[in-house]
Amino acid sequence: MLPKTTAMLVVVFLFVGCSSKSAKARGEFLSGCVQSGTAKSICTCVYDHLEDTYRPETLQALADPHSEIPASAIQAIATDTSKYAAMCLAK
User: Fold this and answer.
1) Residues 20, 56: contact at Cβ < 8 Å?
2) Which tens digit of pLDDT belongs to each residue from 22-52?
3) What is the DSSP code (8-state) at residue 77?
4) Is the pLDDT of residue 18 over 50?
């Protein structure tokens, strides 16, 4: 189930639409994450870890379908998302 959750989290970031504020990026992430069937507490925990790791501009760019994010950056974020999801589930 964890790989499905990780994939959904990354997809949510990539396809939620334009966002220019951290709060909107967070809200869109949490909304999509919860809609994928993940508990809100897990979604919040994962996003909190992502915020601690990445600059707000990076997280906002993931929510912008017009931004050009290198594949290596997307892969790194996906890997971290998976790691954080496992950590949050273990709590």
Assistant:
1) no
2) 888 898 889 989 999 999 999 999 999 999 9
3) H
4) no
What DSSP string describes 3-51?
HHHHHHHHHHHHHS----SHHHHHHHHHHHHHHTT--HHHHHHHHHHHH
Residue 41: other Cβ atoms inside 10 A? 11
CA angle 46, 47, 52 (to 5 degrees): 100
Estimate the crossing angle of helix 22-35 against helix 40-53, to 10 degrees. Answer: 140
- What pLDDT is stored for residue 9 in this prediction? 57
SS3 assignment, position 68: coil
Closest listed residue to residue 13, CA positions, set 88, 86, 81, 83: 81
Domain boundaries, the chain: 21-63+70-90
